[in-house]
Amino acid sequence: MLAGWYERCGPADEVISVGEIEKPLAGPGEVLVRVHASGINPSDYKRRANVKAGMEFPRIVPHSDGAGTIAALGPGVSNYRVGDRVWMFNAQWARPMGSAAEFISLPSMQVRPLPNCVSYEEGACLGIPAMTAYHAVFRDGPVKGQTIYVPAATGRVGAYAIQFARWGGARVIASTGSRTRMDEIKALGADVVLDRAADLAKAVLDETDERGVDRIIEIDFGNRIGFNEHIVAEGGTIVSYGAAAPGTAEITLSPRRARNMSVHFIFVYLLSDAQKQTTCDGILQAIRDKALRHRIADSVPLMDLARAHREAEAQAGTGHMIVTL
Which residues contact 52 (CB under 8 A, 6 or more apart)? Predict the structure, then answer.
């Protein structure tokens, strides 16, 4: 089968190869998927570029997200049929074989039905971004009537978080450093879009009559903890799904305790089976309700995998980079 891979870390053009490798088989409890689209996430190209960390396996076929059709069922799998359309998640988590290949075998619990109204390219946008966003928004239950702040509104997770929050009945405040993208963010469902160049804390508090926001979906916890503590409402929650750079964050305990604030850290790869089920069911319902738009920056063929990685790195925040097979 045709696949893309790398055998050492480094720049995409120097380390990525595309060629023929052995086609996998579906083992017990697994499905074999004919991949039609593979989604690139920041974790994929950061792992490939991380020379210091080195290789986890001798050869890595990258990408955790993708979509395709069931090609074969392993022993013990009865909830899918050959030909079913599916999307996948965690395909390359803790293993060498990801979705940048014509075929992939993986546990049946890591694929979910893909409705006919969603293209394979759109299905490859789900996985990490949509699951992270859904869990960040609904981790603690319904959000109807709440005010949710999404600071990284143009990112993959941020864009889905806006849509899920709006679908769930929340009022959404978003912010961006790009004035030219405010209309785009508004179209995703944000009720208010603020310019980060302004006095952002004052603007958020003005929009909430000084009460603050109930929930913050944060990608840069360490650098914005002080700001977020200032704008979160009493009893509110900061949900952190990432950090711009490794390091430490200083938290002032007294104000947090006095305001009954909560901080939750989430890592989508390690959600419990129950959380994955709830999250995937919720995503499917949002799709059925026509509540989601999928922002695809570009689609490129597998033979151009190195270019796809290079462009994904350069265009972070503009939408999903999809590899087609």
Answer: none
Give CA 318 to chain center in angstroms: 14
- pLDDT for 219-240, tens place per residue? 988 778 889 988 999 999 999 9
Say how far apart CA 98 and CA 89 lie, in whole Å.
10
Which structure tokens are listed for 245? 């750079």
In this predicted structure, what is the pLDDT of residue 246? Answer: 62
What does the pLDDT look like over 245-284, one tens digit per residue? 666 667 666 655 657 889 999 999 999 999 999 999 999 9
- Spatial distance between the Cα atoms of 229 and 274, rounded to a whole number of angstroms: 30
β pairing state of 147-150 and 213-218: parallel
**Of 116, 119, 98, 89, nearest in space to 275 by CA:** 89
| CB environment 61-74: b (16+ within 10 A), e (fewer) | bbbbbbbbbbbbbb
Confidence bin at 244 (pLDDT 50/70/90): low
Segments of 82-170 assigned E as strands: 85-88, 103-107, 111-113, 147-150
174 and 150 Cβ atoms separated by less than 8 Å? yes
Quote the CA–CA distance of 129 and 278 in Å, as a whole number.
15
Please give the single-letter amino acid code of residue 6.
Y
User: Mean pLDDT across the stretch 98-117?
Assistant: 98
- Given the DSSP bridges, would you call strands 65-73 and 30-40 parallel, antiparallel or unpaired? antiparallel
- Under DSSP, the state recorded for 177 is S
Q: Which of 100, 103, 127 is nearest to 114 (CA)?
A: 127
- State which H helix or E strand residue 104 sits in: strand 103-107
Q: Which domains does the chain have, with CATH numbers?
A: 2-126+295-324 (3.90.180.10), 129-269 (3.90.180.10)
Name the percent of the chain lying above pLDDT 90. 84
